[in-house]
Every structure is written in C-alpha cells, then in structure tokens.
C-alpha cells in the first residue's frame, strides 16, 4: 500500500496475504488516496536490499542502484557501479 502522492518511502506499508502489516513507514502524505500493488521482494545480500532505478530527465538518462531497507527511504544509499 502506498499513497497516490508521496516520496522516499513515506506512508508505505507491506501487507502479507492475510492482511497483516509486515513493514511500514510513516510520513507526511497520509491524507492522500492509497494505491495497492502486488508486492515483489527486492534482491538482498548481507541484510540489505537493493533496488535498480532508471533516472529520467525528459528521456532515460541513467541507471542507478539503491541500497537500503525493505522499504527504501531517504536514508537509502546510492551504490557506485559501472557496466562493462
């Protein structure tokens, strides 16, 4: 569950198939309409989760990888990388 307007993982909940909240982040966007999408577990290693990103500035212009918790937030780190 996430809100229609939000950023950096604010107001996100991971809900299991029985309806129990597995993880959540509070935030300042709780008054916005909630959206629901199917949960897909991120890749993980060493207790950290990794999320690939594509950056857009009117067109696709960069590939990034973030490292953080099960819900990415403002404290998630950018992982240095390169492609051969």
Write the layout of secondary structure elements.
Elements: E1 2-3, E2 12-15, E3 21-25, E4 34-35, E5 43-45, E6 48-56, E7 60-68, E8 77-78
Antiparallel strand pairs: 1-4, 2-3, 5-6, 6-7, 7-8
Account of the 3D structure:
The chain is mainly β and 84 residues long. The model has no long low-confidence stretch (mean pLDDT 91). It is 0% helix and 43% strand.
Amount of helix: under 10%
Radius of gyration: 14 Å
Low-confidence stretches: none
The separation of the N and C termini measures: 37 Å
How many E-type strands? Answer: 8
Report the total helices: 0
Beta-strand share of residues: 35-45%
Question: Order of strands side by side in the largest beta sheet?
Answer: 5-6-7-8
The largest sheet, given as strand count, sense and whether it forms a barrel, is: 4 strands, antiparallel
Q: What structural class do the secondary elements suggest? A: mainly beta
Shape: globular
Could you spell the SSE succession in H and E letters? EEEEEEEE
Mean pLDDT level: 91
In short, what is this structure?
With 84 residues, the chain is mainly beta.
Notable features of this structure?
43% strand, 84 residues, mainly beta, 4-stranded antiparallel beta sheet, two-stranded antiparallel sheet, globular, 8 strands
